[in-house]
Specification:
It is built from 2 helices and 6 strands; from the N terminus they run H-E-E-E-E-E-E-H. The protein is of the alpha+beta class. The chain has one domain. A 3-stranded antiparallel beta sheet has the order 1-4-6, covered by helices on one side. Strands 3-2-5 form a 3-stranded mixed beta sheet, with no helix packed on it. The longest helix is centred in the N-terminal third of the chain and has 19 residues. It is flat.
């Protein structure tokens, strides 16, 4: 993630906090809440993205040969901004 506005940062932080509280209170579930440093690999597109937040259910599965590219996101969230909406929605 590059530079972001204060509003973008606050929204992303609050979203992570809300979802962390929700998923951490579920019984018998194993969720991971990751920030914008997480890399989600989309095999069909042969590309990867770094959403503002990623939720993983159970064990994190990585692309073969990678230590960072996640293959099994449960939820991905992106805080949208007018300046980046075209890229974010593509």
């Amino acid at each position: 993630m590059g530079r972001v506005t204060q509003v973008h940062s606050v929204l992303g932080t609050r979203l992570i906090s809300i979802l962390s509280n929700y998923y951490n209170n579920l019984e018998n579930e194993n969720f991971w809440i990751l920030d914008s440093g997480a890399c989600v690999h989309i095999p069909v597109l042969k590309s990867y993205y770094q959403p503002d937040m990623t939720v993983i259910n159970e064990k994190i599965k990585l692309k073969k040969g990678s230590t960072t590219e996640i293959l099994n996101p449960y939820i991905v969230c992106e805080v949208l901004a007018k300046s980046t909406q075209d890229f974010d929605m593509s």
